[in-house]
Design the sequence.
């Protein structure tokens, strides 16, 4: 299933997670978002964000060119901003 | 308001008084045989005796080092070398202090083995037991408590597994001595006076007589830490320890209650992830991460408003890698704030922090253009 792709390579934390969250807000629950990143903190922070938001990390692999690509399956929390 | 008292607490008045007195009485070289030297030696040995009583070992088993990092490096290296015939592996938890992990890599290279922790930062005991029981383990190291997130480790069980395998266990009690009861289930134990309000420049390594170790540095009269230590610093550290243990129970209740109060307040702040064991923890440490926020920006903004706090984030600092402790726990590494309440903290201090924090987080998020995520 194809979905949104967010290229956050070269961005320092917390920007990769912020870009990913913005993309998740625009996407429907059940869809996938791929985030490309290079900052070491993103390796830990993308799964932590997914846990806090009820999404699922499907996997991480080296991205074409440089950095990594993490695929996230959006849960029920997608498509709507948090109560804040 | 200083809320970053982990690893370097404000110096206890008892430490200052004892240090001052020892400058008069114990300034001489304790290795010399004249009256002045013998007086310094007596002061030094009395300090060692205090540490031995508190840690539950013999005075001869207490060695003084110039600092906690030096203690941990020496302990790992000397035991790894002393037991090299048993093997090269050094086993640690994934959330040990950086000095332990660096010493393990230095001593063991690729044979350094880290055991994972759960979401609360507690070591996986089954994996730990398998790791220490495997062939070729020279030494294992496990902290008593994690200074970054406060979680207490199952040291008794971990020691039992290591003991059954004949592997000596180094317990890093640098964040716990002076704050909580110290277990006697260890073969080597490291304690850090700067953490309990002693002067910096001295630290403690206790080594049970049964432990095999070989220095990997030149020999000296002070075999573990060549050259010895500052006598006034050692005397001040012992005085501070006696003083903090005298009212440890009150200090524990006081700070534990305030941390509980803060935990409850932070639970109300949107997108704040409180990290670490809520119950089996140090009484004074509280760590949390705020989603979508740069940790250094939080530290700077809190400092501007008069709160000194720590952080395990690495968003803009020279450190590229975030806290290995938060990473190993699967916690959010950005937006991290680490509090270690000093003994003098008041309920008003904590309430003021709880009031200010949501505004600070909102301000930093707004400044970064983050809204509605």
Sequence:
């Amino acid at each position: 299933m194809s979905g949104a792709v967010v290229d956050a390579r070269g961005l320092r934390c917390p920007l990769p997670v912020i870009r990913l969250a913005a993309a998740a807000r625009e996407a429907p629950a059940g869809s996938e978002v791929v985030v490309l990143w290079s900052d070491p903190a993103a390796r830990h922070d993308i799964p932590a964000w997914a846990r806090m938001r009820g999404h699922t990390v499907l996997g991480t692999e080296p991205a074409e060119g440089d950095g990594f690509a993490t695929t996230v399956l959006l849960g029920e929390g997608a498509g709507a901003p948090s109560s804040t | 308001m200083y809320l970053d008292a982990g690893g370097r607490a404000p110096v206890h008045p008892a430490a200052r008084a004892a240090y001052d007195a020892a400058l008069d009485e114990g300034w001489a070289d304790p290795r010399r045989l004249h009256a002045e030297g013998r007086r310094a030696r007596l002061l030094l040995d009395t300090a060692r005796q205090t540490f031995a009583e508190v840690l539950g070992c013999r005075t001869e088993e207490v060695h003084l080092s110039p600092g906690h990092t030096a203690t941990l490096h020496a302990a790992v290296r000397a035991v790894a070398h002393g037991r090299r015939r048993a093997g090269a592996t050094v086993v640690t938890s994934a959330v040990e202090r950086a000095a332990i992990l660096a010493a393990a890599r230095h001593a063991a290279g690729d044979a350094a083995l880290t055991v994972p922790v759960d979401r609360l930062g507690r070591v996986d005991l089954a994996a730990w037991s398998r790791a220490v029981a495997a062939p070729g383990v020279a030494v294992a190291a496990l902290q008593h408590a994690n200074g970054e997130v406060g979680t207490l480790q199952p040291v008794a069980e971990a020691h039992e597994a290591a003991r059954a395998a004949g592997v000596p266990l180094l317990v890093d009690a640098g964040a716990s001595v002076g704050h909580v009861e110290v277990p006697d289930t260890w073969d080597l134990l490291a304690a850090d006076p700067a953490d309990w309000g002693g002067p910096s420049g001295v630290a403690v390594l206790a080594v049970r007589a049964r432990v095999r170790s070989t220095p990997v540095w030149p020999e000296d009269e002070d075999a573990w830490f060549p050259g010895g230590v500052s006598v006034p610093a050692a005397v001040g550290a012992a005085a501070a320890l006696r003083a903090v243990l005298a009212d440890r129970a009150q200090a524990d209740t006081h700070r534990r209650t305030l941390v509980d109060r803060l935990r409850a307040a932070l639970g109300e702040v949107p997108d704040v992830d409180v990290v670490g064991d809520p119950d089996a923890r140090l009484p004074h440490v509280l760590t949390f991460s705020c989603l979508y926020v740069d940790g250094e920006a939080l530290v700077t903004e809190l400092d501007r408003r008069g709160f000194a706090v720590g952080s395990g984030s690495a968003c803009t600092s020279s450190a590229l890698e975030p806290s290995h402790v938060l990473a190993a726990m699967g916690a959010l590494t950005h937006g991290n704030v680490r509090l270690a309440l000093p003994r003098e903290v008041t309920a008003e201090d904590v309430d003021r922090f709880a009031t200010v924090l949501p505004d600070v987080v909102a301000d930093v998020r707004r400044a970064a253009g983050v809204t509605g995520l």
Notes: Chain A has a mean pLDDT of 90. Chain A touches chain B through 22 residues (CB under 8 Å). Chain A is about 30% helix and 30% strand. The CA atoms of residues 25 and 79 of chain A lie 4 Å apart.
